[in-house]
Amino acid sequence: MASKRPPRVIVTKIGFDGHDRGSRAIAACLRDAGMEVIYTSPWQQISAVVKLAIEEDADVIGISSLATDHLIVPKLMTALREAGLDDVQVIVGGIIPHKDESMLVNSGVAQVFHPGTSLGEVAEQVRILTDKRRGLRGENKHELC
After folding, report:
1. How many domains in the chain?
2. Which of 79, 96, 97 is nearest to 88 (CA)?
3. pTM
4. Which has the least CB within 10 A, 13, 17, 21, 87?
5. Is residue 125 part of a domain?
């Protein structure tokens, strides 16, 4: 029997980047796709995001970056591992130079989205990553639309 709980996604910005138009669009898209979205205000500390991921039993954390705050995502990945949240899938989107993409992936980021990625593609990938997380945890997959 498939789990009835829809994907639970945190959409946030870490560091000092306050540009949140893109993260708001992603949050709305995922909510409209039937996902549970926990949207935070900009300027979140890594420790706060980890705490929220634990409290909300998040499947996916989406980080938006339009400045250089994607460079601190490896610290988030380390903090998640230290908290025992290795299975939480992390995606990063925004203005991410291609030269920085391998650094993000090597730190454990599941997916990097660049400008021009369709909202539908992001939602589809979040569903796939949710299934991956739930598979790692031994949970049943949710039913896809």
Report:
1. 1
2. 79
3. 0.91
4. 21
5. yes
